[in-house]
Amino acid sequence: MRTSTYAAEVARRFREVNGDHPMTVADDAYVSTRFTPLESLCAESGRDVEEARGQMLDGLLPLPGYLRSDGAEMVPRDLFDLAVRAGGPERLRGWFVAHWPDPADGAEEWEAYLSGRYVCLHRVAPDTIRRKDELTAAITDALGAPRPDSPLWAAALHALVDELDALEPEFAPYDRLRFGGPTSRDTCIDAVRNRFPRPAEASPGGDALT
Predict the structure, then answer these.
(1) How many Å apart are CA 76 and CA 52, to the nearest integer?
(2) pLDDT digit string, tens, across residues 141-151
(3) Do 10 and 116 contact (CB within 8 A), yes or no?
(4) d(CA 32, CA 28)
(5) Do strands 36-37 and 73-75 pair parallel, antiparallel, or not at all (unpaired)?
(6) pTM to 2 decimals?
(7) What does the DSSP assignment read for 40-87?
(8) Exposed e or buried b for every residue in 11-44, given b needs 16+ CB within 10 A?
C-alpha cells in the first residue's frame, strides 16, 4: 500500500506534465463546478484514495485534470467508469487501445488519456475522443476552402461546430496557459462562429463540405 506521500508525487507528476501555472479564483470556480476532489469521489464510491493515487502513478488511471489552488486533486466524476467497463484498471489499456484500428494511434491516445489533459470533453472515452478528432479535422478542412456565400456550406459547417460544441466544455483560463495557446473551443467553435455567422435559414440538402 502506498503512503500519503504519493499525494505529493501525484502533484509533482501533474506539474511535470502541465507546467507550474497558478490557478486563479475563476479557475477554481470553474473546476469546482465541473470536477470533484479525488478524495471525495473515493469516499463516495467506497474506494481507497491511496490506491487510486498509486494507480495514477503506475499508469493505470489518468492523472487529475486539475490541481485546485488549495491542492485538491480535481478529477471527473466518472474517473473510474472506463476501468469498470474494461474489467479493472489492469485491463484498461488493452480495452482502450483496441478502439483504434491502428494500435499505434491507440497507444498515443492512451498516453494522452493518462496525462489527465483530456479536460476538453464532457465525457472522456474512446468514442468521444475519436469523434472530437474527426470533427476538428472536418472543421479545419472546411476552413481551408471556405465558401461563405453558399448556404449549404455554411449550414454544414455549423452542424459540425454545433456537434463539437456539445462535446466540449468551456475550458478554464488556466487551460490556455498549460496548452500554450488557444483551445480547440477557441479555434474550432468560437472563432468559426465569429468569422462565419450562422445563416438565418439553412437550405435543405446533403453535406456541402464534401
Answers:
(1) 13
(2) 999 999 999 99
(3) no
(4) 6
(5) antiparallel
(6) 0.88
(7) HHHHHHT--HHHHHHHHHTTSSPPPSEE-TT--EEE-TTTTHHHHHHT
(8) bebbeeebeeeebeeebbebbeebbbbbeebbee
